[in-house]
């Protein structure tokens, strides 16, 4: 099967990019399953029920989250009843929502596991040992497993990729909003990319108006973030997976841009 994994959707520009690029992309690449990181989909911070529904309506079947998961209070109203949404599994016990879930399509089941890194991010539970535990649980249902590793440090991400090589179909990095040029198959059949990138405003600093961030670096003063406008982009990877073994066969990075 062919899976499309879309990088962090940032606010309205990100949703516009989904609206504009997703259907043609799906047709052109014969995509079977669509997963996206939605932690920034509501104005750059968090997710609301309404916006999740908008993304499902565009054809996204499953959403992963990250450190911004709790930024919009509306998430508390629906995360527990929402089977198409996961937040990092390594939040301490008692956090609402689920850390892994399943997509059921074409008579198959795809497990999706969300993990957060701990370098330059809140010190959650250990994603490495936790991953093995959760993967063993998912494996009882399906050999097809996609991991979204939401992390900052390239070392932590590459290390988890190798650690899970052969244990999952793909380890896809999110959170930095910059697509890395290292999409590859690891030795035991796991597709890997350090970061899939961002879906949102192109001429920005990680989605935010560039002037605001430049000024923040210049003055070190706090500033209200505002999303950038102008050209938009979609960043994603396409992964081919053997349905029977769960091994990845191919990974391709994709970047699409609107004109000017
Ligand atoms: Fe993000
Ligand atoms: Fe993030």
Automatic annotation (TrEMBL):
Keywords: Hydrolase, Iron, Metal-binding. The active site is at 68 (proton donor). Fe cation 2 binds at residues 39, 67, 150, 175. One of its GO terms (molecular function) is metal ion binding. InterPro entries: Metallo-depent_PP-like, YmdB-like. Fe cation 1 binds at residues 8, 39-40, 177. It holds the Pfam family YmdB. Its cofactor is Fe(3+). Belongs to the YmdB-like family. PANTHER family: 2',3'-CYCLIC-NUCLEOTIDE 2'-PHOSPHODIESTERASE (PTHR36303). This is Metallophosphoesterase, MG_246/BB_0505 family. The lineage of its organism: Bacteria, Bacillati, Bacillota, Clostridia, Eubacteriales.
């Amino acid at each position: 099967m062919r899976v499309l994994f879309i990088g962090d959707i940032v606010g309205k520009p990100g949703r516009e990019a989904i609206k504009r690029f997703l259907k043609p992309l799906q047709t052109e690449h014969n995509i079977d399953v669509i997963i996206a990181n939605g932690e920034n989909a509501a104005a750059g911070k968090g997710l609301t029920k309404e916006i999740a529904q908008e993304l499902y309506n565009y054809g996204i079947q499953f959403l992963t989250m990250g450190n911004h998961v709790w930024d919009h209070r509306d998430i508390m109203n629906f995360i527990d009843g929402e089977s198409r949404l996961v937040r990092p599994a390594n939040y301490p016990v008692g956090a609402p929502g689920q850390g892994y879930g399943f997509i059921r399509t074409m008579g198959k089941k795809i497990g999706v596991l969300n993990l957060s890194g701990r370098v330059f991010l809140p010190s959650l539970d250990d994603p490495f040992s936790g991953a093995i535990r959760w993967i063993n649980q998912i494996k009882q249902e399906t050999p097809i497993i996609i991991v979204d590793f939401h992390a900052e440090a390239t070392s932590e991400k590459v290390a988890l990729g190798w650690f899970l090589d052969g244990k999952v179909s793909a380890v896809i990095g999110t959170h930095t909003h910059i697509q890395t040029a290292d999409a590859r198959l690891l030795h035991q059949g796991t597709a890997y990319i350090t970061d899939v990138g961002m879906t949102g405003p192109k001429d920005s600093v990680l989605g935010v108006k560039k002037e605001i961030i430049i000024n923040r670096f210049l003055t070190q003063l706090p500033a209200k973030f505002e999303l950038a406008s102008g050209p938009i982009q979609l960043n994603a990877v396409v992964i081919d997976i053997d349905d029977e073994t769960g091994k990845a066969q191919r990974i391709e990075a994709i970047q699409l841009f609107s004109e000017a």
